[in-house]
């Protein structure tokens, strides 16, 4: 019987790490399909579309979260993913080129403060040896503090203008075919 418990315990210990981790999910997905990240789009008129890409939350520096290099990298990544989605939509509708008419870059920051209590052995001076009715001046039953953590995510909104023909001389015009191949190479395996 003891061997059975030992074997069952070993199997359970082997399975726990597999259950605790979730596999990464593709970043190029509709908003909410794989988590709280992804793209959304809506047509404004026939040749104009608004594309929004919301990135996943990432840990950032508590003291200066908006200027954290990880958040800046995430803003660049979400911009590319929004442009990639715009190129996909343009290709589906038979357009050859696109222009970014308006761009909005945002970052959502959440700062959490978690209360932390360190009881007697870790902080303070011994148990209340004179009774706990009147604490001596040096008595401390623990330390209360806070632990701060921060996380942020990038949100990119693009207003796209599509064109039937690609003219490389036109200012700001981007080839949809070239964008699709570039973004597939750069972000085709991107996950969250």
Question: What does the model show?
Answer:
With 192 residues, the protein is of the alpha+beta class. It has a domain of 125 residues. Strands 1, 2, 3, 4, 5 and 6 form a six-stranded antiparallel β-sheet that branches. It is built from three helices and six strands, in the order αβββαβββα. Strand 1 and strand 2 form a beta hairpin. Helix 2 packs across helix 3. Helices cover 29% and strands 34% of the residues. The model has no long low-confidence stretch (mean pLDDT 85).
Report the β-strand fraction as a percent range.
25-35%
| Rg, alpha carbons | 27 Å
The secondary-structure class comes to alpha+beta
Q: Which bin fits the share of residues in helices?
A: 25-40%
> H/E element string?
HEEEHEEEH
- Care to count the β-strands? 6
First and last CA, distance: 44 Å
Number of helices: 3
Indicate the mean pLDDT. 85
Question: What spatial form do the alpha-carbon principal axes imply?
Answer: elongated
The major beta sheet can be summarized as: 6 strands, antiparallel
Low-confidence stretches: none
């Amino acid at each position: 019987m003891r061997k059975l418990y030992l074997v069952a315990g070993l199997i359970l210990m082997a399975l726990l790490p597999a259950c605790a981790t979730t596999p990464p999910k593709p970043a190029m997905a509709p908003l909410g399909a794989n988590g709280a990240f992804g793209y959304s789009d809506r047509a404004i008129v026939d040749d104009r579309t608004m594309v929004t890409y919301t990135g996943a939350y990432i840990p950032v520096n508590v003291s200066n979260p908006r200027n954290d290099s990880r958040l800046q990298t995430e803003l660049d990544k979400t911009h590319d993913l929004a442009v990639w989605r715009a190129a996909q939509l343009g290709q589906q509708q038979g357009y050859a080129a696109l222009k970014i008419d308006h761009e909005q870059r945002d970052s959502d920051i959440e700062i959490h403060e978690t209360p932390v209590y360190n009881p007697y052995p870790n902080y303070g001076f011994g148990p209340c040896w004179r009774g706990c009715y009147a604490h001596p001046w040096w008595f401390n039953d623990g330390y209360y503090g806070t632990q701060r953590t921060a996380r942020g995510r990038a949100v990119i909104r693009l207003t796209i203008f599509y064109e039937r023909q690609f003219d490389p001389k036109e200012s700001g015009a981007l080839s949809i075919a070239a964008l699709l191949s570039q973004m597939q190479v750069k972000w085709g395996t991107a996950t969250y």
